[in-house]
Amino acid sequence: MLDINAERLLSDLGELSAIGQFRTGVHRPSLSAEHLACCRWLMDKLTAAGLDPFMDGIGNVLGRSTRPGQHLLAGSHLESQNHAGRLDGPLGVLYALETARALQEQRPGHAKGIDVAAWCDEEGHFGSFLGSRSFVGQVSEIEIDKATDRTHGHTMRDALAKAGLAGKQRLTVSLERYLGYFEAHIEQGDVLESERLTIGVVTSIVGLWQYRITFEGVQNHAGTTRMAIRRDAGVALARFMGMVEERMPTVAAERTVWTTGSITLDPGAPSIIPGRADMMFQFRDADPDVLLRLDKALMAWIAEADRIGPCRVSAVNLRKGVPARMDPSMQAAIEAAAQQHAGARHKRIPSGAGHDAQILATVMPAAMLFVPSIGGISHHWTENTEDADIVSGGRVFAAAAGAMLGL
Amino acid sequence: MLDINAERLLSDLGELSAIGQFRTGVHRPSLSAEHLACCRWLMDKLTAAGLDPFMDGIGNVLGRSTRPGQHLLAGSHLESQNHAGRLDGPLGVLYALETARALQEQRPGHAKGIDVAAWCDEEGHFGSFLGSRSFVGQVSEIEIDKATDRTHGHTMRDALAKAGLAGKQRLTVSLERYLGYFEAHIEQGDVLESERLTIGVVTSIVGLWQYRITFEGVQNHAGTTRMAIRRDAGVALARFMGMVEERMPTVAAERTVWTTGSITLDPGAPSIIPGRADMMFQFRDADPDVLLRLDKALMAWIAEADRIGPCRVSAVNLRKGVPARMDPSMQAAIEAAAQQHAGARHKRIPSGAGHDAQILATVMPAAMLFVPSIGGISHHWTENTEDADIVSGGRVFAAAAGAMLGL
Question: Shortest CB distance from A268 goes to which of B221, B234, B261?
């Protein structure tokens, strides 16, 4: 089996967390100076670990091993959400790096190896999983032409040119090289913490279905228009949202989650009755049948609200994400490693968040390991995990990876 | 009695509507080139009508008569909401102008006269009734220093300087000069139209109470946070809004109106549970006791929602507008004129919208006359009134003004 150097792992995490530091977290948007500094830091470490690093034309870093056999692809991402945590992404890259070093030190002659990856833009500054989707061949040049930063509006082409990556080759997967993909991540929820567990064995990554629901009424003066004749799109939205919150539990499964993340009233002035209102509504579940059932229910509620009036109600589906099942034998390897190295304080759980593993899972066996998030907090600079849990997670990751490599 | 020249009135309206035309309406923000062109147009007409025009340091135009007796102050405003109608404001100015001309032509020797006013920024591009409030002495230099355009953000000081008004005297009311203020306006509602009436005798201008209601929950990841532990500020807002819509009819009076004009979820991203939500909520009524009762009920509902949780709920009152009662004897004069010149197709109604008359009413007797709005539409370029109703309104206005002047 493989074992990690805990001190080196925590020291690496400290170095990486200092790049683009923001309070106790980091601010490292995709292709920003800080993100690129992290990529260079990683490439130096990969070289030192005996791997051959390459940064490709979309900002992916891949450290390739020169071993003759099949490889385990392992990693995560280095950029962050704006003003967010230091572990979301980097932890998975550091576990992969440390495991590759352990393999180099402890089993130099083993035929099978590890390739270490840091996918660009998992956090979606420019698009949706652009780096890992490019690697599996799902991103066209046209998609990159159109991609702009959601915070500042600059184009991805400009950002790539500034990073010296314009015109550089984009790496794509060679399927015969890889036996599977393995990614570690913080849970970003509170299941492990609340049950005093240290390892989550991910069973699947949930599918996310996203809708824009639109209410069309009549815009008018808020002082002169009698209540009886109003067709207020904002009121229609609030009533619909209340109804959805009441009815969702009757059709949802145990772990389904649903969220209205944004609401826009048009024109949005205090003294004008909104003529139009939009809400962004999503639900997530690991079971495709549940997703279909929820979609059917939502469409029926929308038709009902439209029929009752007084506003027209319609919806556009923006995303129908397929749940990604994690590979059963890789799950078993993680579970066995947790049994041995984490006092059996593990549990099989689905991932409610999206990860690059769901993209890799479309072309090869994939697996994920979770460590606890303190207070379940993520996408915020206060995001954190106990050092002991970070080390324990690294041990289980390396042991499971070793098993996947036949050690 | 005084009578108008209907052809001249409609011709003036045509000339004025061509300045800053937008589709069938106009786009004339306060102190824009188009608004200033209207002011110059008016000043020429005032001079021709034998009045002495002056544009003051806040953009008010006042055409003063030279008659020795007391005066009726009459007018409205010339700027528009963005891309809005041609009648909201200009109609009242044109009625005042035409009535002043009728007085000049038909009663040149009468001691009492008419001053014609076009108040700047009734539509609130820079503030709240800045022109008429300046005229009654309610606007400090500091308030003007701070005023910025709500659409483009430029300062009122810059706009005044560009208009050549920097440092110019601001006119203030001399109370002994005026026997009262008289303003005509489109109804902006559908009461007159739906009852096939042509004249509204305004009894009062409603008081407007405005609140920002805030919901504080916990921001978190929309995929990883279980439904059971969420404190979603957006859901709390929607539930509260549904409750308010249900309960308001039980405490409101017959003509009370209430509106949620804008909603903000923070941070407002599809995959983030809103940690904070704000709604702008207002109600309006002509009865001070009703306003107090509604405020008390709203505060109780907010306390109840805060107690029940899971989000904190609080409110800030942004405005407690006092209803403005119109002068009874001036109302009687309008009613008598409508009886004689509009076939008694008139009705006493409150104004749900705010008008400069409510500002003038704080220092002198004030009255308003309404003409019908087609479809009740206003603050939109499709706003309109039948020519026959425009002429009939002008006749009643002039006749009532004549009566107020003792003719």
Answer: B261
